[in-house]
Amino acid sequence: MDFTQLIFYVAAGLAVVSSLLMITRKNPVFSAMFLIVALFSIATIFVLLGAHFLAALQVIVYAGAIMVLFLFVIMLLNLGHDFEPDIRGRLGWAFMGGLGLVLFAEILTAVQGAPGDAGGDVLTPWFEAKGVVAGVAEPLFRDYAVAVEITGVLLLVAMVGAVVIARREA
Amino acid sequence: MGPLSTKAFLIIGAAKMLMIFVGWLTAVAGVTLAERKIAAWIQDRSGPNRVGPWGLFQPIADGLKNFLKEEVRPAGSSRWVFYLAPVISMFPAMVVFAVIPIAAPLPTRWGTVNMIVADLPIGILYILAIASLGVYGLVLGGWSSNSKYSFLGGVRASAQMISYEVALGLSLVPILMVAGNVTLPQLVSQQQDALWYILPLMVGYLFLTASYFAETNRLPFDMPEAESELVAGFHTEYSAMKFAMFMLAEYANMVTAAALMATLFFGGWDIPFWSGDNMTLAADGSVAGAAPAWWKTTLTGLCFAAKTGFFILVFIWVRWTVPRFRYDQVMSLGWKVLIPMEVVYVALLGGAMLYLDYLGIPFGTRYALYLTALNVVLMLVIVFVVDRNRIILGAGWRQTRPQRVKSEWIEYADRRQDSR
């Protein structure tokens, strides 16, 4: 087996196992920690695909910022103890299991319906020509500049809204 | 000579990792001693002087003592997380060193070796990514101890580190803008060609230093610990080697931060005023610029060590000179002072760069000198207009140059001092 393949299987296996552990732990702190492991493993897979910049963003944004905030909130609200699962009873499990199966089937059909590898590897030459960072940044800030700006405004609106809601109760 | 063969690459890579790991650990041990020695000099004491000549073996004695001490795990603490937290806090400082070039390329029989463990195409972003993980050790350590003091320390630590991560990221933006790329070897070679970035980007260096002092939890930002007025924070319940791991992590972060400051703003391994080391190694193994030689690698490595050592000295010096900020001061400095100022700086710098491009000046010494002029002006504005003796010049300035103070209480205190 190729060395790269070995890393892929380790990372992918870690992602699957830690995702499973994340949804089965009763303590939110452990769930958050396994989610971090899962995000890290996915970042590793991004690196294997040559998308270094995406991997860095994955770690900076998700593992480094959002999950720290998650942990912070869990601790601040003192939720660091065991919880009963939200899914209760045989009916609830059956319903959730069925929903999961439906999602899985949808993903399978989506993958099968997707266009094959007809164009060959487009990304590697693109990144080699543009550089790892500029290869992502250029389309983002040239072709999709308006969408990026609108998303920024949307986030700002969400932030202002959160501040307003928080102030009303005080 | 062509690039290294895969086998040579693996063996040399492992050797480099081992070398940097051992050197870095030795440096960390040395820094724990240096901190105590320099503290002693600043406070007019002798410092540790019993173990070995000048107390040189003190770190070994400390380590041995910590290994032999009893490990205590508080009742009701979460075992796995409690054991994991010190490890997690060590990890980021260690792996960041992988992207820092430590010397000029070394010629060997198998090809020219880049003196960097991993020349990632995302250099600085990798540093940001790993640095953002440093907070987990503190938070989890505080939470898993099952003690309210540790817990409050953990919350305090995470709030501070999240706040200053934003400032740290923004303080790296000017470098990215001027350099136009993110890998550290290229940053070094650009600084060799033009000027060290400390001159054209000195305001950025000010921001970076402030953010790094906060990120490494050093005074004047050591809120997570604050051992003299609050309980020691997230590691209150830790004992023996696990406590020592947290302490080592602080020094390790300091060493890494010092190395980064040297690399980003002070030319890395570049020896100033000497063009014999201006060389860059391309991916195909060819070297541009001066010819590599083993003695050049040694000299540049020593130069890098000297620069890093200087910044470690600055870290220690500041710790034993200035008092701690209050918590609300730390927070308002981060969110209300540093981040807005950094945004304004990035905007101004961007404008200046656009104008220089419009004038058609290529990147080089002249370009850097124009940016230096801008930065000197901005620096004066910050010190004399924005800061107004509040933080940077501070109390010492007031003592040497009495100023009209509006507060009656301070006038009263001054009069009392004058009459004495």
Automatic annotation (TrEMBL), chain A:
UniProt GO MF annotations: NADH dehydrogenase (ubiquinone) activity; quinone binding
Q: Which UniProt keywords apply?
A: Cell membrane, Membrane, NAD, Quinone, Transmembrane, Transmembrane helix
UniProt EC number: 7.1.1.-
GO CC, sorted alphabetically, is: plasma membrane
The record, for Pfam families, names:
Oxidored_q3 (PF00499)
Transmembrane segments annotated in the record for this chain: 6-23, 30-53, 59-79, 91-111, 144-166
Similarity annotation:
Belongs to the complex I subunit 6 family.
What is the documented function of this protein? NDH-1 shuttles electrons from NADH, via FMN and iron-sulfur (Fe-S) centers, to quinones in the respiratory chain. Couples the redox reaction to proton translocation (for every two electrons transferred, four hydrogen ions are translocated across the cytoplasmic membrane), and thus conserves the redox energy in a proton gradient.
Q: What is this protein called?
A: NADH-quinone oxidoreductase subunit J
| Taxonomic placement | Bacteria, Pseudomonadati, Gemmatimonadota, Gemmatimonadia, Candidatus Palauibacterales
From TrEMBL, chain B:
Residues crossing the lipid bilayer are: 6-33, 80-104, 124-143, 164-182, 194-214, 251-269, 299-322, 343-361, 367-386
Q: Quick check: keyword Iron in the entry? A: no
Which GO cellular component does the record give, naming just one?
A: plasma membrane
Q: How does the record say this protein sits in the membrane?
A: Multi-pass membrane protein
Q: Which GO terms describe its molecular function?
A: NADH dehydrogenase activity; oxidoreductase activity, acting on NAD(P)H, quinone or similar compound as acceptor; quinone binding
EC annotation from Swiss-Prot or TrEMBL = 7.1.1.-
State whether keyword Membrane applies.
yes
Give the highest taxon in the source lineage: Bacteria
Q: Which UniProt keywords apply?
A: Cell membrane, Membrane, NAD, Quinone, Translocase, Transmembrane, Transmembrane helix, Ubiquinone
Catalytic activity of the protein: a quinone + NADH + 5 H(+)(in) = a quinol + NAD(+) + 4 H(+)(out)
* One BP term from GO: aerobic respiration
Localization: Cell membrane; Membrane
Instruction: Describe the protein's quaternary organization and the partners it interacts with.
Output: NDH-1 is composed of 14 different subunits. Subunits NuoA, H, J, K, L, M, N constitute the membrane sector of the complex.
Known role: NDH-1 shuttles electrons from NADH, via FMN and iron-sulfur (Fe-S) centers, to quinones in the respiratory chain. The immediate electron acceptor for the enzyme in this species is believed to be ubiquinone. Couples the redox reaction to proton translocation (for every two electrons transferred, four hydrogen ions are translocated across the cytoplasmic membrane), and thus conserves the redox energy in a proton gradient. This subunit may bind ubiquinone.
> Which family is annotated?
Belongs to the complex I subunit 1 family.
| Name the record gives this protein | NADH-quinone oxidoreductase subunit H
> What organism is recorded for this protein?
Candidatus Kutchimonas denitrificans
This protein's gene is called: nuoH
